Amino acid sequence: MRTKATLLSAAAVVLALFAFGQAQEPEPTSRRPQHILTGWNQFYRGEMTRYNPYEKFLTVNNVRKLRLKWKTIIGDNQSSSPAVFDGVVYFGSVDDTNVYAVDAHTGLVKWTFTTGGLVFSSPAAANGVVYIGSSNGTLYALNAKDGSPLWTYSNNGYVESSPAVQDGVVYFGAGNGNVYALDARTGRSLWKFKTNDGGFSASSPSVANGMVYVGADGEATVYGLNAKTGERVWSYAPFSPVLGTPVVNGVVYVSTRGGAIYALDAFTGTELWIYPTAGQVESSPAVAFGTVYVGTVYPDETLYALDAKTGVKLWNYKPGGPIFTSPALANGIVFAGSDAGRFYALDASTGAKLWSYNIGGPMGPSPAVVNGVLYGGYGGVYAFGLKHH
User: Fold this and answer.
1) Is the bond preceding 299 in cis, omega lying within 30 degrees of 0?
2) Is 166 a member of any domain?
3) Domain containing 89: what range?
4) Residue 345 domain-assigned (yes or no)
5) pLDDT value at position 36?
6) H or E segment at 295?
7) CB 379 within 8 A of CB 74
8) Could you report the per-residue pLDDT of 67-80, keeping only the tens digit for each?
9) Residue 225 Ramachandran class (φ > 0 left, ψ -120 to 50 alpha, else beta)
10) Are 235 and 267 contacting, i.e. CB atoms less than 8 angstroms apart?
């Protein structure tokens, strides 16, 4: 992914960094091609925060004009969260065990691949390969152009975890309690780490600072692992299981099913602050603009905005249903969905509702925002954009 950028791409990066210079977190300085920078190639996006700093088309002033461009509905059950990369949207289906690639501009299906198991795992796309897990205990590496399998890696535990790809390595967790690191090109095992009691489920790894951060369900532990060796650097035990993916922005932010958000030092695991919510948290937080955003399910069904340094609540919004989705952040906007069947765009500073859309089904997959288009939905993928974009 670290290929030499063209002059045009470099200029675009400079303009993007200038436009978002008011953000409180450092912007990426990668010289990767612009389509990679602006894409949403894996669950938490490339900067580990579910924030797209390069989005410039959607603003707090025009987001109310979002309208449905297309929808590709596969079935009546949940699809996995989409990855958007190089003009293609990738996602998996629980209905028919397939992985789908659809054209990002039209929604037309380009190819499908059948895994033989339920696909809760969200895909990761990198270097012409799509990585995705299945409940049949297999991680698949598929050719991004036609969906043909390049290699597979099987274990004796289901793979709901969404893979993370960085620096030629793919990381994922499995229901057998292991965290795996594989060579992204060949699928060769590099290392595996066994959690204390084998309690590992839906939490997906994040990779930053030469570390892998991942949560365990059954034993309620967050781990910081050496990304090269898999050795445990630190562990932290909150009061309840960790289902969501840790997000990393100099600090590791973790949500727990018992109803709390934790901020941990990324290098030592030292607790920095805790914010108790009034409801369970089964999604992942997102962080940008000096703020942590996270939604809760039962009983309070609330989206919270917390000061990233102190954990103090800045605002909250009640959408009228449980929030299983993880927010997506871009250009001062928070995008999220509720189980009541609505998509929302909120002002990231105030929590004011800017836009909503009723999709008619419970929102489970988490959204992605790329080049002026919001992707997400239920039973497939919906794409929303501005009229002339």
Assistant:
1) yes
2) yes
3) 7-385
4) yes
5) 43
6) strand 291-295
7) yes
8) 999 999 987 777 79
9) beta
10) no
Going by C-beta distance under 8 Å and a sequence separation of 6 or more, which residues neighbour residue 383? 68, 69, 70, 71, 89, 104, 107, 373, 374, 375
Task: Report whether 382 contacts 71 (CB < 8 A).
Answer: yes
CA 203-377-300 angle, to 5 degrees, is 60
In a domain, 2, yes or no: no
Number of Cβ within a 10 Å radius of residue 59: 15
Residue 381 has pLDDT above 90, yes or no: yes
CA 166 to CA 14: how far, in whole Å? 23
Range of weakest confidence among 4-18, 179-193, 216-230, 372-386:
4-18
CATH number for the domain harbouring residue 104: 2.130.10.10
Q: How many domains does the chain have?
A: 1
Instruction: Give domain status of residue 248, yes or no.
Output: yes
Pick 46 or 284 by higher pLDDT.
284
- Tally the residues of the chain: 389
- Cβ neighbors of 361 (< 8 A, separation 6 or more) are 76, 341, 378, 379
Confidence of residue 125 (pLDDT cuts 50, 70, 90): very high
**Cβ atoms 48, 366 nearer than 8 A:** no
Residue with tokens 């948290």: 281
What is the residue type of 297? Answer: V
Give per-residue pLDDT as tens, 241-291.
Answer: 888 899 999 899 999 989 999 999 999 999 999 999 999 998 999 999 999
Taking residue 360's Cβ as centre, other Cβ atoms within 10 Å add up to 10
Give burial (CB, 10 Å; 0-12/13-18/19+) of 70.
Answer: middle
Nearest by Cα to 224 from 254, 259, 201: 254
